[in-house]
Here is the input.
Amino acid sequence: MTHAAAGRTVRVLVLGHTAEPGGAELALVRLCSALGAGFDVRVVLLADGPLVARLAMTGVHVSVLPADRDLVTASRGSVGAASWRDLRRVLAAARTVAGLCRAVRAVRPDVVHTTTLKTHVLGLVAGRLCGVPVVWYVHDRVADDYLPARAVRVLRWLARHGPRAVLANSRATAATLPGVRDLTVAYPGFAPEQALAVLPAPRGTGRAPVVGIVGRLGPTKGQLELVRAMPAVLDRHPDAVLRCVGAPVFGAEEYAREVVREARRLGVDGHVELTGFVADPAAALDELTVCVHASPVPEPFGQVVVEAVVRGVPVVATDAGGVPEILRDGDEPLGRLVPPGDVDALARAVVAVLDDVPAALAVARRAHAAALGRFDVATTARTVSAVWRRAARPRPARARRRTA
Ligand code: GLC
Here is the structure.
């Protein structure tokens, strides 16, 4: 094993279980593009998909170690529900760990870095078996409102005892990992091309207001709640349009159909557009009068909130998880926060923005200025790199044994 002293190249083996472009996965792509010299990053994914090419474009080496499909696609809610299926998953997990151990021995990394709940567990076992320190980058809140209670207990215990260091994507996520000694918050930052460095002077567009929700469609993202808020929005602003930008991934196609059915049932379907996947979310954000983040469950971080803010778009968001860390600067609100799952409050906040767009744009300007320095990916890369370097150093006791 190469042991990296400061200044030496640190070799990192990054593990992710999915190749779908979810939030944590896109954060990884941006992190890889922002890493400075001194890191040799190899990524192993447990499934093939669009992420492979996106990661490869950043210059890192990517390979796929196909794991049992059931293991890769098992939902958060089904983890730990004792059943025969679990036994099959345990066997699949054992095979995957064996494969990961082979990958670790081939790559000889200084650090194994894991990015998803499944790889936290599988990578930890593989890393420990091979004697390589493991760093977890936790993008999910390890809490009962997000995961089955048993999975929460196991993950919290592992977080305290297994990894050399733990990174969390927000203070809210970090707060769900009590007792972890080496715990660092690394906000997933935006890439320079996602932001407007200078905002244009506000001008009336003369166009109908566009209420947007950007990101994958799914029950934890709240497109349904926003559709339900639309009748009240349209009462006040009859020409408004709701645009759902993004595609259903992780098996949420049925949810997307439900969104369409609900719009029809409420008679607002003429005012609801589903764009499907868009290649350039920044351009889509620029079209919006207000960007809504409607997650009914606490969002671990909420990258899309940052993405809207760095385009100068006013934001309405649910007040839970990591989102208030983005939309509050001390006591100063940088957007409108509403209680999660409260359709009436969501409608009122959207109406308030549409009633006075210039006032909302003034708040958005302050949010933009605050976000540029706090959430850029260069900061993320510096924070993560420092943790890697620290984790890669052999512990004094182990170093002594080696020289004895
Ligand atoms: C996960 C979280 C999301 C966060 C992203 C990046 O997708 O659900 O809240 O923004 O990871 O950390």
In short: The longest strand covers residues 10-16. The chain has two domains: 10-189+377-403, 193-374. DSSP finds 16 helices and 15 strands in the chain. The pocket of alpha-D-glucopyranose is lined by residues 22-24, 27, 139, 169, 188, 299-303 (CB under 6 Å).
